[in-house]
From TrEMBL:
Native source species: Streptomyces nanshensis
GO molecular function: DNA binding
PANTHER family named among the record's database cross-references: HTH-TYPE TRANSCRIPTIONAL REGULATOR YODB, TRANSCRIPTIONAL REGULATOR, MARR FAMILY
Pfam families xrefs: HxlR (PF01638)
InterPro entries for this protein: HTH_HxlR, WH-like_DNA-bd_sf, WH_DNA-bd_sf
Identification of the protein by name: Transcriptional regulator
Residue ranges of every copy of the HTH hxlR-type domain listed in the record: 2-100
Keyword ATP-binding on entry: no
Heme recorded as keyword: no
Assigned keywords, A-Z: DNA-binding, Transcription, Transcription regulation
Amino acid sequence: MCPSRLVLEHVTSRWGVLVLAALLERSYRFSELRRTIGGVSEKMLAQTLQTLERDGFVHRDAKPVIPPRVDYSLTPLGTEAAEQVWALARWTERQVDAVQAARKAYDEGRAQQG
């Protein structure tokens, strides 16, 4: 597998996109980020953050206080990736009607053939 394909998979995964988009706004603590994203399990969010941190997109700042405090933010590389992914997400939202029309035409054409 091409290395760039794996990176692309990480930033465009279901949770990767949402984590990057949320962190584009500001830094978050784990529980805040989980509430902001919604629908993600603790395990999946932890795994996604760890993957994005390993790839250099997310910075994990663990503060040695009681109780422990960990903040997540984007690195400069992560900000650039988030902006690119978010632009694609916005483009997709603008094109939903066109895609649905294309699907309908395709399905009607297939029904007439079969």
